[in-house]
Structure formats: structure tokens, C-alpha cells
Write a structure and sequence with these properties.
It is built from 13 helices and seven strands. It is α/β, with parallel strands linked by helices. The termini are far apart.
């Protein structure tokens, strides 16, 4: 009579177990076949060169010491054929050198060699009374491999290696030769301990690296926050002090003709000029405050969409300098020269800063401003030369920070030009800039939106 047929519940349970087993085998195959960072040596990111070489030295020491020992023990003690013992010993020890850069691939080679060695020892004459299926030198080499594996691979891969090692020992248990000493439990336990310790050290090192990276990021954020706070403070002071006084000057200059009766026509024009200059300064101040207060505004083209000044506005600039008591002669190209925005702006700012320096340090000195283009149309030359100041006059400032010249050099550098500044033998000063008419696109794009005023 045939036995009872399985019930539907038992059949469903068996199918679920089979599906779970297939899923486990699939996961196991994926984990054992997907190495982490293949080719990257252990300790490769360490700064100390001796520590970077340490894994190679350790692997070489294990391979050199275990190879002859394994050949001797397999051939002399276990009674294996000399050629077979040499081949197995080489396959079990030489891949330790590969474990420095590809530990998972080395494990495949060594584990396969260990399995073949255990099968070969099954019929050997010297197994009685000796360790099987894993001889002592196999255990030592395998544990050394586990150290390299635990320092590189993820936890799921380590668990898969550990379980595979245990399953192999369990499968060998029914084939244990008579009077041999079983070592599969010992290797299974030691493998788990070594893998756990190595994984713990690796995770601790990863945590320390992440902490250092986080501290670096935090330090950068603190520096950025400090910079933004300082920029906000400067903007607030500029708004509270400078902008307020400029507004007062503008109001007083505009209202002077109405408050003071009998002013000459020249005085009214002078007050009007003072008011116009103050309003221009306030517009420059608003652009500067917008840049200081908001990086996003600066990144998207500046707080205002007003056109930037260029050499076409130099006559107005020179006119204001002449009213300040500095006789200035201006020479511009007869024909309108099409300029890149960055070059046009840089030329204006260089002249502006040079004239401001003349007003501060050499009031009353005769000054010549010349803007010319080369015959081949390749560059623009900006020249500002002033003579020594008149003897009776004293400079408004006897010392300077040098920021003006630094700003000039930075503007010239951004458009790939050159700048030559220095005193003249007669006591005057010379500023000469060579600006290419076709600057590199990157500097030109980065300068124009960020400009917020004279340097």
C-alpha cells in the first residue's frame, strides 16, 4: 500500500521552506561574489608609508613561513604524494599575498584548496591521530585570511563566509576518518571570533573617520557662519554710519539753494554736483550692502540690475576729480571701442582708484589719464600719471593700507592682463594697466556680477 499523501498544509510548508532556502542561497551567492572596493590595498588611505606597507609585509611573512611548513606536514606527516602536497600547499598559502588588495577573491581560492585538501586527506595513511579536515597550518592561514577579509568586506559578506565555513565542516563530519581529531568546530568558532573582532575594529575606524569628517564640516560651517556674521556686521555699520551721513550730505546739498539766499550761480551748481555725487555714492553703497548681506543675491547677478560703469563714464569721473582740486587731463580713443564688460569695468575702476589715491595722497598734483588701444586691436592700455603735489599742499592721508593697489592687481588678473605701478623719479606716481580686449570667458563672467564698487 502506498503511504498517505501529504496534506496541503504540509505541502505549503515545504514550498515555503524551499523558497526560503533558494532565497538564502541566492543572497549567499551575491554576498560571496560581490567584493567591496576590489584592488584597493588595506591601509591604503593611511598617511604613514610604513603602515601602508605593513599589510604586504605581514602577508609575505605568512606565505613564506606557511608554504614550506604545509608541504612538509602534508607530505611527511599525512603521507600525501609530494607533487599533490606542493600543489595544495601553494594554493593554500600563495593567495595570502592577494588578500592585501582582494581578500574575497583570495578566500575563494584558499577555501577551495582547503576543501580539496580535506578530500585528499580522507584516503591518506597518516590521518589517524591527526587533525582533520583542517590541519593546523590550514587553520593558521585561514585565520590570517579572515583578518584581511574582516577589515575590508561588509558584515553580510563576513556572515556568509562564516556560515559557509561551518556548513563545509558539517558536510565533512560523516566522512571523518577513524581515530582522527575533528577540527571543524574549532575553525568555525575561531573564524567567528576573528571576523567579529576585525569587523568591530573596522567599524570603529569608520566611525572615527566619519567623526573627523563631520568635525571638518562643522569647522567649515562655523567659519562660514563667522564670515556671514562679520559681513552682516559690516553691512549694518555701513548702513548706520556711512549711508546715514551720505544721506545727510545729499539732503543738505539739495536744500542749500533754498535755505541760503543770494547764492551765486557757481555755488548752486557746486551744491548740485555735490548732491549728484552723494546720490551716486549711495547707489554704490546699496549694491555693496546687497552683496554683503546676501550671497544668494550676489550669485544670481547682484542686488541691482543697473549697468556697470565703463570708460564712457570717465569724463564724468574726471570732472568730479577736477572739482575736488586736482587738475586732470583725459585722453580717450577717438573711435568707440567695443569692450568686454569685464574689461570696460576694470578700466573704469583702475582709473577711479588711481584718481582717488591722487586726491588722498597728492592733492593738487597735475594728473594725466590716458586710455588707448594697440594698433593691432589686441589690448587696451590705461595710464594714470601724476606729478608731485604742489609744495604748500599737504596730503589728506600720510599712510595707506595698500588695498587699492591690491584691488587693481586683482581686477587685472581676473581679465588676464598686467599692471605696473610705482613712483617716478620726480616724485610723482604712475599706474599702467594692459588689458586684453578679448579676456578669458570665465574671469569675465565671474567679475561683472560681483562688482559692487571701487576697490
Amino acid at each position: 500500500m502506498s503511504g498517505p499523501s501529504p496534506t496541503p498544509a504540509h505541502e505549503q510548508t515545504r514550498q515555503r521552506l524551499l523558497r526560503a532556502a533558494r532565497q538564502a542561497l541566492r543572497v549567499l551567492a551575491v554576498e560571496l561574489g560581490t567584493p567591496t572596493e576590489p584592488g584597493t590595498p588595506l591601509f591604503g588611505s593611511v598617511q604613514n608609508p610604513w603602515l601602508r606597507r605593513l599589510p604586504y609585509l605581514v602577508a609575505f611573512g605568512f606565505a613564506v613561513s606557511l608554504l614550506p611548513t604545509t608541504i612538509t606536514i602534508l607530505g611527511h606527516d599525512y603521507g600525501l604524494n609530494g607533487g599533490l602536497a606542493g600543489a595544495l600547499a601553494t594554493a593554500q598559502t600563495a593567495p595570502l599575498l592577494l588578500a592585501v588588495t582582494r581578500p574575497l577573491q583570495a578566500w575563494w581560492v584558499i577555501f577551495t584548496a582547503d576543501i580539496l585538501c580535506a578530500l585528499a586527506l580522507t584516503g591518506a595513511d597518516g590521518v589517524a591521530g591527526r587533525a582533520w579536515p583542517w590541519p593546523p597550518m590550514v587553520i593558521v592561514g585561514y585565520l590570517a585570511l579572515m583578518v584581511a577579509l574582516s577589515l575590508r568586506e561588509r558584515s553580510r559578506t563576513l556572515i556568509a563566509v562564516w556560515l559557509t565555513t561551518g556548513v563545509a565542516g558539517i558536510l565533512f563530519e560523516p566522512r571523518t576518518p577513524d581515530r582522527s581529531v575533528g577540527t571543524w568546530v574549532l575553525l568555525f568558532v575561531l573564524t567567528g571570533v576573528v571576523l567579529m573582532m576585525g569587523a568591530t575594529l573596522r567599524e570603529r575606524g569608520d566611525a572615527q573617520r566619519k567623526l573627523i569628517e563631520q568635525e571638518t564640516i562643522s569647522e567649515a560651517e562655523r567659519a562660514r557662519r563667522t564670515l556671514l556674521e562679520e559681513r552682516t556686521r559690516i553691512a549694518r555699520e555701513l548702513h548706520d554710519v556711512v549711508a546715514h551721513h551720505m544721506s545727510v550730505i545729499t539732503v543738505q546739498a539739495d536744500s542749500a539753494p533754498y535755505r541760503l539766499s543770494g547764492l551765486p550761480r557757481e555755488a548752486e551748481e557746486e551744491f548740485g554736483s555735490i548732491a549728484a555725487t552723494a546720490r551716486e555714492s549711495l547707489a554704490e553703497m546699496r549694491r555693496l550692502l546687497g552683496v554683503l548681506r546676501s550671497e544668494e543675491t550676489e550669485r544670481h547677478g547682484g542686488p541691482e540690475k543697473a549697468p556697470q560703469p565703463g570708460i564712457g563714464m570717465l569724463p564724468k569721473l574726471v570732472e568730479g576729480t577736477v572739482r575736488a582740486g586736482v587738475p586732470v587731463e583725459l585722453s580717450l580713443p577717438e573711435d568707440r571701442v567695443p569692450l568686454e564688460p569685464a574689461v570696460d569695468l576694470s578700466a573704469y575702476r583702475i582709473v577711479q582708484e588711481a584718481l582717488a589715491n591722487v586726491v588722498r595722497h597728492a592733492p593738487g598734483a597735475r594728473t594725466r589719464v590716458s586710455v588707448t588701444t594697440a594698433a593691432d586691436g589686441s589690448r587696451l592700455t590705461v595710464l594714470v600719471v601724476n606729478s608731485p603735489p604742489p609744495a604748500p599742499s599737504a596730503p589728506l592721508e600720510t599712510t595707506g593700507t595698500g588695498h587699492g593697489l591690491i584691488g587693481m592687481r586683482e581686477r587685472v588678473r581676473l581679465v588676464d592682463g598686467s599692471l605696473d605701478t610705482g613712483p617716478l623719479p620726480d616724485g610723482g606716481f604712475r599706474v599702467a594697466a594692459q588689458l586684453p580686449l578679448s579676456p578669458p570667458p570665465a574671469p569675465a563672467a565671474s567679475l561683472s556680477p560681483k562688482d559692487s564698487g571701487s576697490v
